[in-house]
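Example with several molecule types.
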Amino acid sequence: MSAEARSLVTPELESRRGLWLRERLSEPVSASAIRRWAIACYWPDPAPRLYWDEEYAARTRHGGIVAPLEFNAFTWPVERDAADSGLETDALPGLRSMAGGTRDLYGVPMRPGDVIRERARLADWDQRETRLGPTLFIRSETEWTNQREELVRTRFITSIRY
Amino acid sequence: MSQEEAMGGERAGVSLYFEDVAVGDELPVWRRETGLLNWNRFAAVNDEFFEVHMDDAAARAAENPQGAFGMGMMRFSYLHNLLRSWAGEEADIREVGCRYRAVNQRGDVLGVTGRVTGTRIEGGDQLVDIALDILNQDGESTTPGHAVVALPSRARSDAPQP
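Resulting structure tokens for the full complex:
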């Protein structure tokens, strides 16, 4: 492959660098969604009581049910946002996508009734030559805060486009 | 007599203290056989429906000859499961990150592993650095990663709980 491999970066992608592109509010987090998340993650083992037994959870230092830290508060929207599949998707027509990696920094846990505010941006990217050919590694940053404006988590996702 | 006194001065619910952790410690491996029964449950709670995770023909067209394969985010949850089962509910997971290096094939028996790489006290927190990975049944690394976990200190077990 020549050193002058074609750039996959489009002007549309370039114009989005660093801008907070998506802001949205979750539905209130439900105890039922927390329970089902925990069951799915631990299946076929039973889910830990902290995630579904209010009486037990009240006696822990959490003082009540909390969600597993990696819980997704933005599932099953009535109207699906195109950006759900990636802030870069429509800026990179024709490219395939693969999950590269995930990194979370955690603040306070989510609890039933919490409403999460999300904002997300494309942080940066670089292009490398891989066995897939010219390949873009795109890093996005998603920040979640709750209704008390406490930081819940910051997630960095690396998405691979080729 | 308080619950704490009944336990000889140790805090109720604490399964691991900072003082009991040393660099080089291996976390007990968290194992799971994976296939459509795990993947479909996770797809439902994470609202994550892609044909490559559901349909063999679609996955083969995406160059995975073995057929449908698992989602990276489920393995991200499994990394948390390892940390939660090791550190207990009194620990605070502060950071988890990973790369999706190899695909999770149907029937894989995944072993989620962790090794303590550092211990430090920072801003009054007792922090443990952990190297993570998820190995398949052939011992192949699929999900190298890292975590930072804050643990309670035995020296501070008489301090008021948050």
